[in-house]
Amino acid sequence: MQIKDFLGNPITAGCHVVYPVRRGSSMWLNRIKVTQVTPTQVTGYNADKRLTHIKNLKNVVVVTLPDGIPTDQEAAAPQGVEGQ
């Protein structure tokens, strides 16, 4: 079974994903580089080299796939259009 992000892109080891974080009334996105994918969680390291386990996979979005493979949204974007 292939694990997918919120937009339907496959989550694989080596890709970068972002996920929402909330502390009090503040919200932001954290980014990790995925090292392991299981049916129940995604594991990877953030920019501070801290090991992170994400269990709520409904909120994860793939930013870059391994080896620069474009996401489904990038592949569907019209060529030559900037800033959208």
Which outline best applies?
A: globular
Q: Rg to the nearest angstrom?
A: 14 Å
Which sequence of strands runs across the widest sheet? 4-3-2-1-5
Average pLDDT: 84
Order of helices and strands: EEEEEH
Poorly predicted regions are none
How many β-strands, per DSSP? 5
Largest sheet: 5 strands, antiparallel
How widely separated are the two ends? 33 Å
* Share of helical residues: under 10%
Please identify the structural class as seen in this structure: mainly beta
Outline of the structure:
This protein has 84 residues and is mostly beta strands. 6% of the residues lie in helices and 39% in strands. The protein is built from one helix and five strands, in the order E-E-E-E-E-H.
Fold and architecture overview:
This protein is mainly β. The chain has a single domain (1-66), classed as SH3 type barrels. Helix content is 6%, strand content 39%. It is built from 1 helix and 5 strands; from the N terminus they run βββββα. It has a 5-stranded antiparallel β-sheet with strand order 4-3-2-1-5, with no helix packed on it. Strand 2 and strand 3 form a beta hairpin.
